[in-house]
Design goal:
By secondary structure, the protein is mainly alpha-helical. The chain has a single domain, classed as Lysozyme (Orthogonal Bundle). It has twelve helices and five strands. The strands form two sheets. A three-stranded antiparallel beta sheet has the order 1-2-3. The chain has a two-stranded antiparallel sheet with strand order 4-5. A hairpin with a 5-residue loop joins strand 4 and strand 5. Helix 8 crosses helix 10, helix 10 packs across helix 11 and helix 11 crosses helix 12. The termini are far apart. The N terminus is likely disordered.
């Protein structure tokens, strides 16, 4: 599958546009695409299950995954990451020495399982976000926190020691939340994150 078919950048495309782009560039994959369903595959289900279980906004979780890996399972390196030189793993791009170990410890999981198992990788990332949110926003964060409050949580989650890099990462994630994203993955899954839009973003997240 060529790169044109697999990478659809923000703003998020409608499902019709996703199909048209895919058909135009990869006609040999028509049968695979016809059988695919929007947000029904294992990757989206992993996001959905982890977000529900661990009280993390699914758009925050998915935006992080999109910015780190484009929702693909990476094994050691992600060209999309803000730090492509580091070793990162799984759909969430959990990075060695940055947030991989912290995420694994929150669910008491083996590092190799977090690296290579889709559901465990996403669940570990969501658990780390949840722990940071509870420590930063209070134990009742899920009931009272506005989505804009997650900026500091995402910065802490990133694990970047350089504050400027952490801020840049946060802005990338929040931009993805605002604009949305959509891709046809290497495994044929079609995933779309609906953006909240400019007006809702300004209201929910603020300008800063």
């Amino acid at each position: 599958m060529n790169a044109t078919c697999r990478h659809l950048n923000r703003p998020a495309a409608s499902i019709m546009v996703l199909f048209l782009v895919f058909f135009a560039g990869c006609k040999e994959q028509d049968e695979e695409v016809e059988g695919a369903q929007l947000n029904k595959g294992p990757t989206y289900r992993a996001f959905e299950a982890a977000a529900i279980e661990l009280d993390v906004p699914i758009n925050i979780l998915m935006a992080i995954g999109y910015e780190e890996t484009g929702w693909e399972m990476v094994t050691g390196q992600s060209e999309r990451s803000i730090d492509p030189s580091g070793l990162s793993w799984g759909v969430m791009g959990l990075a060695e020495g940055r947030n991989l170990e912290r995420a694994a410890s929150t669910i008491d999981a083996d590092l190799n399982e977090v690296r290579h198992d889709l559901s465990t990788n996403v669940r570990a990332a969501a658990a780390l976000l949840s722990v940071i949110a509870a420590n930063t926003l209070g134990p009742d964060y899920a009931e009272r926190a506005a989505l804009g409050d997650w900026r500091d949580v995402v910065a802490n989650y990133s694990g970047f020691s350089d504050p400027e890099t952490a801020i840049e990462f946060v802005e990338m994630v929040m931009e993805c939340v605002r604009d949305g994203a959509g891709r046809v993955l290497d495994n044929g899954e079609i995933i779309e994150l609906q953006g909240v839009g400019d007006a809702a973003f300004e209201q929910a997240y603020g300008d800063g």
